[in-house]
């Protein structure tokens, strides 16, 4: 078999595998390697020495990845599954003890959690979980969501 035909087959398989991997994983990375494979596939009939084709593949894949991935990620919505901690944001809770330097405790489903709360909060004050900071909930008297 001619070298050109072999390289066309190789690049075609790489392109197909990259698109298949993207279809299965959906991580917006292998797509750009598929496009790099297409560029290398286009260069194959010019009978370039195979290391040059690999260089073309790697270079064009990186260019596609760095240039277009940030734009693509902005427009593609991925479904995020809230964790059990995220699901509690917005929940109404009562403080279990007085605030000590902006720290207190709450109870959710028989589990006691440390919380960051406003200074001067007292036991029994009704608060809303507004977010998380590390392993602590953030609570406030107002029901609003904060960025983490």
Describe it for me?
By secondary structure, this protein is α+β, with helices and mostly antiparallel strands. The chain has 2 domains: 3-75, no CATH class; 86-140, OB fold (Dihydrolipoamide Acetyltransferase, E2P), CATH 2.40.50.140. It is 43% helix and 19% strand. It has 3 helices and 5 strands, in the order H-H-H-E-E-E-E-E. It has helices at 3-25, 30-43, 50-75; strands at 92-94, 103-108, 111-116, 126-133, 136-140. Strands 1-4-5-3-2 form a 5-stranded mixed β-sheet, with no helix packed on it. A hairpin with a 2-residue loop joins strand 2 (103-108) and strand 3. Helix 1 runs antiparallel to helix 2 (30-43) and helix 2 (30-43) runs antiparallel to helix 3 (50-75). The longest helix is centred in the middle third of the chain and has 26 residues, at 50-75. 20% of the residues are buried. The mean pLDDT is 85.
In short:
With 148 residues, the protein is α+β, with helices and mostly antiparallel strands.
Instruction: Give the C-alpha Rg.
Output: 27 Å
Order of helices and strands: HHHEEEEE
Q: Strand share of the residues?
A: 15-25%
Main β-sheet, spatial strand arrangement:
1-4-5-3-2
Number of DSSP strand runs: 5
The level of helicity is: 40-55%
Number of domains: 2
The description of the largest β-sheet is: 5 strands, mixed
Structural class: alpha+beta
- Quick check: average pLDDT? 85
- Counted by DSSP, the helix tally is 3
Produce the secondary structure layout.
Layout: H1 3-25, H2 30-43, H3 50-75, E1 92-94, E2 103-108, E3 111-116, E4 126-133, E5 136-140
Parallel strand pairs: 3-5
Antiparallel strand pairs: 1-4, 2-3, 4-5
Helix pairs in contact: 1-2, 2-3
């Amino acid at each position: 078999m001619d070298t050109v035909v072999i390289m066309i087959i190789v690049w075609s398989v790489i392109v197909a595998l990259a698109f298949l991997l993207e279809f299965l994983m959906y991580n917006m990375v292998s797509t750009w390697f598929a496009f790099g494979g297409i560029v290398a596939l286009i260069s194959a009939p010019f009978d370039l020495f195979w290391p040059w084709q690999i260089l073309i593949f790697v270079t064009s894949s990186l260019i596609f990845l760095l240039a277009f991935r940030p734009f693509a990620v902005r427009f593609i919505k991925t479904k995020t599954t809230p964790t059990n901690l995220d699901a509690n944001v917005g929940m109404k809770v009562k403080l279990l003890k007085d605030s000590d330097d902006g720290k207190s405790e709450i109870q959710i489903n028989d589990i006691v959690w440390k919380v960051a709360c406003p200074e001067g909060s007292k036991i029994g004050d009704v608060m809303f979980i507004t977010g998380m900071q590390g392993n602590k909930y953030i609570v406030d008297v107002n029901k609003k969501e904060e960025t983490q």
